[in-house]
Specification:
It contains four helices and eight strands; from the N terminus they run ααααββββββββ. By secondary structure, the protein is of the alpha+beta class.
Length: about 150
């Protein structure tokens, strides 16, 4: 097996956006439907499996089982500060930021409905973030661009 074929079936929540990249690179030459069981656990099913869908540069998402909660992550692209805002209900949690290699580069506690995170020390590039609530339930995942 190639390194891409070994990486593609891994959990993207644990190994980061490199898993999606491996799947995208394999898509033209390999018809295998790569996905990880963790994607079903987190409620995404096969949404990210094998052929990633290019998403618009959206900065908000509604939690599937709570229609009253909207999560905004802005600005995107970010420069020195990133805001995470919960709208519709009181919520706290944690944001995990992964670089393009899937390495965890930042963990930050979200202690109020609006939290400002300093990101000026991060290298310029594309990052994948995952927000979970205090019950370890996923709230939102998406990509973020850091540019100077």
């Amino acid at each position: 097996k190639s390194i891409l074929q070994q990486y593609a079936p891994l959990c993207p929540y644990q190994y980061g956006t490199g898993v999606y990249l491996a799947r995208a690179l394999l898509a033209p030459i390999d018809s295998t439907d790569y996905y990880s069981a963790c994607e079903e656990i987190y409620g995404n099913g096969r949404a990210y499996a094998h052929r990633p869908v290019k998403k618009p540069a959206s900065t908000q998402s509604t939690v599937p089982d709570n229609k009253n909660l909207t999560v905004k992550v802005y600005p995107n692209p970010a420069n020195t500060l990133l805001n995470v805002e919960f709208i519709g209900q009181e919520m706290t949690g944690t944001i995990y930021l992964y670089n393009g290699l899937g390495q965890l580069t930042l963990t930050y506690s979200l202690t109020s409905n609006l939290t400002t995170i300093p990101v000026g020390s991060l290298a310029q590039g594309v990052y994948h973030y995952r927000i979970i609530d205090n019950n370890q339930k996923p709230v939102k995942t998406d990509n973020l661009l850091i540019e100077r």
